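so ive been stuck on this for like two days lol. basically i have the seq below and the ligand is nicotinamide-adenine-dinucleotide, smiles is in there too. i just want the complex predicted, nothing fancy, no docking runs or whatever. if the output looks off dont worry ill sanity check it later, just need somthing to start from for the group meeting slides
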Amino acid sequence: MDSFTGKLAVVTGGGSGIGRELARQLAAQGCSVAACDWNTGAVAQAAATARAGAPDGVLVTGHACDVCDEAQVLRFRDELLEQHASDHVDLVFSNAGIGGGGSFVKDRREDWERTFAIDWWGVYYCARAFLPLLIASGDGVLVNTSSVNGFWATLGPVISRTPGKAGANSINGRGRGACGPSAALAPWAAPGAAAGAVWAQKGRP
Ligand SMILES: NC(=O)c1ccc[n+]([C@@H]2O[C@H](COP(=O)([O-])OP(=O)(O)OC[C@H]3O[C@@H](n4cnc5c(N)ncnc54)[C@H](O)[C@@H]3O)[C@@H](O)[C@H]2O)c1
């Protein structure tokens, strides 16, 4: 993909940090954006900011969606296709994620599973929902945001962020073979320590 102009991008976790900035920069470069977040106020504000800095003809929409819930992901997909009057998407940034998760051994099972659900199942459901639309683009790119923690267990193997982000890595970089030449999964997106809020382990709004 040589240019973002005229493309349609999906950004999950678009209400804050890396996702919010992705939406803003894509829109400024002429790319329409459908951003989602489970924090509806934050994503509405992020979409308004991105819209304000975008050239004419660029549509930026904000959507409520918990990526751990497949029904909500499918609803988000249908909603954005209708609002953007499109039958495909060109870019998907599966960026929603949280840190922490606690110890497999010492902490609450619910906390471990919650982080794993977002960092793995959220990425998986989005890949399921959007891959056909990326293939339909003919020039599609899927970027699953992992973490350095998905490569090696810097926070410890018993922390659910580690297997969650390793799962995201497992479907990164495999796209050309699996999907044919018309779709590409981006090789790696594994931040080390960017200035996002993920380390604050923000709870569900
Ligand atoms: N910032 C870093 O240093 C760093 C390092 C490694 C990996 N990452 C990864 O980068 C991505 C973005 O991180 P960030 O620092 O911008 O974090 P952030 O907390 O600023 O933004 C994440 C956004 O995702 C949303 N979100 C969380 N769970 C969600 C869900 N289930 N459904 C929908 N939205 C949800 C949050 O509400 C938030 O708006 C995450 O996947 C994170 O794990 C970040």
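The chain has one domain: 8-200. The beta strands are 8-12, 32-37, 60-64, 91-94, 140-144, 183-185.
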